[in-house]
Amino acid sequence: MPKPLSLLFLLCLSWLHLYAEPTPPPAPLSEPSFSQKLRGLQAHYLDEKNIWLSAYKNIKNYQEILLEIQILEDKLKQGGLSRKQRVDSNLRLDTLKSKLELYSNFEKSFTDILRLPLEKESIASMNLFSYLTKSYEKEIHKYQKLYASIKSDYEGAIDYIKEYKRRTLALLEESHDQEEEREIERFIFTLNDDLAYLESSQDIVFGLGDKLKLYENRLYKSVEEYRGTELPKIEITILLLLGVFALIYFTRRLVTRHVHDDERRFGILKTINILFILSVILVVIFTFSDNILYGLTFLGFVGAGLVVSLKEVVQNFIAWFYLSFSGLIKVGDRILLYHETRPVIGDIIAITTNKIVLYEGINHTTAQELKRAGRIVFIPNHYVFNHFIFNYTHENMKTLYDLIEIDLDPSSDLALAQKIALEVIYDRTGRYIELGKKQYGSLRAKYDLRHVDFKPQIHFTVENEKKAIRMQMWFVSPYRDIMQVRSEITQEFLGAIANKEEVRLKG
């Protein structure tokens, strides 16, 4: 902007400032009227955040609604109302009943505020966890804090109404109108009534403090009783359990060091583990039972209940105990059993307290009957009590008889066929014959095996349907090599008769 124009603009502003009218001062705020002061006091009465005042406000509202409902119901019963008045009264009555239902969920008396669990006749039994962590002290502290809050709120509610009364009385002194004074006096009457109602609960508040003190005494007495009676029992139990554990530990070490048979050692260690568990149960029962008779009775009932409810589990355990010491079967044995009509054959890979575990290997039975192998089979231990079990490897017996059947033409030279078969069998299994005799020799102390013979045997039978002579070749073989030995004997025999016209297979 050019300099002459800027000077002209400043002169105009100065002239306006000189001749402008001065701004009047702000009007003073009007003092609230007496009625406004009274309405303000009444409107905010009992609005303080205080549990006692809130409860009392709910009580008053509940009683006022109840009274209005009663008045409306009496008017409707008396009659004399116009149709519109009856409709309006019924609508109002429904509204009030809905409100009443709402207030029924709030406290209807100050007793509901004082819901501390101190009215119980007995205190919960002390336990080791509560004793060690001192959770009972936390519980007492929690109740003390709650009681202090209740008492503080109660005293605050009394002071609140007294302060309201003081302000209302001060307002009464300012009044010069009789109608206003009567309204103030009615409000003061309400305040006096409310104050009296609250002060009538003073005994409840201080009585709650006495109950809390009594509860603390009973709780600490319970702690002392626990320290004098139950704690020594726990200490004795811990010492006994440590003793049992030490005994079991050293017994296991002795068994491991001095019992060299793997199967026997495994069975003994299993039994020791079971005895350890039973010992722990017995120690706990007899330590915490008041007398031995009670403990035996309790143990009897528990045992009977277990037998009834866990019948198969108990049977499995008894069967396991029987198998551990009877020598009937053991881990590593090959056994054959039947599920319904289907054969199951395999090597035992584990015997637990509730089941026998088999590995289904490749053998003649799986090849002919099942057409599959390699599965894991689980058999409940109690099976041995009600079914036959065929043990291929009982005690030291590792060899067994097997059979190869070949159908020959009826015109074949059977004597020559028998000679060739015996030569082949002796060639392939001769070393197993002496081994089998030694193994069965160790069983003669327990069983009558005088007629057992391990020499190869050849038998012939007539098969009318096939019009053939069936040659049965019995031979001895280790149970794990049966399939291999069968294959070798079959191949060598067929190779030996391939160029002989006197011995022909049935076509």
Summarize the helices and strands and which ones pair or pack.
Blueprint: H1 3-19, H2 34-43, H3 51-78, H4 83-103, H5 128-133, H6 135-174, H7 178-199, H8 202-228, H9 230-258, H10 262-288, H11 292-309, H12 311-326, E1 334-339, E2 342-351, E3 355-359, H13 364-370, E4 376-380, H14 383-386, E5 390-391, E6 399-408, H15 414-441, E7 457-463, E8 468-478, H16 482-496
Helix pairs in contact: 2-6, 3-4, 6-7, 6-8, 9-10, 11-12, 15-16
Question: What does this entry look like structurally?
Answer:
With 507 residues, the chain is of the alpha+beta class. Helices cover 62% and strands 11% of the residues. It has 16 helices and eight strands. It has a five-stranded antiparallel beta sheet with strand order 4-3-2-1-5, covered by helices on one side. A hairpin with a 4-residue loop joins strand 7 and strand 8 (468-478). The radius of gyration is 52 Å and the shape is elongated. The N and C termini lie far apart (133 Å). Mean pLDDT is 77; it is low at 1-21.
Question: Short summary of the structure?
Answer:
This protein has 507 residues and is of the alpha+beta class.
Rounded to the nearest angstrom, the radius of gyration is 52 Å
How many strands in all? 8
- What structural category do the secondary elements indicate? alpha+beta
Summarize the amount of helix as a percent range: 55-70%
Q: Which stretches are poorly predicted, pLDDT < 50 over at least 5 residues?
A: 1-21
Shape: elongated
The run of helices and strands is HHHHHHHHHHHHEEEHEHEEHEEH
Strand order of the largest sheet: 4-3-2-1-5
User: How would you sum up the major sheet?
Assistant: 5 strands, antiparallel
The proportion of residues in beta strands is 5-15%
Number of helices: 16
Compute the separation of the termini in Å.
133 Å
Mean pLDDT: 77
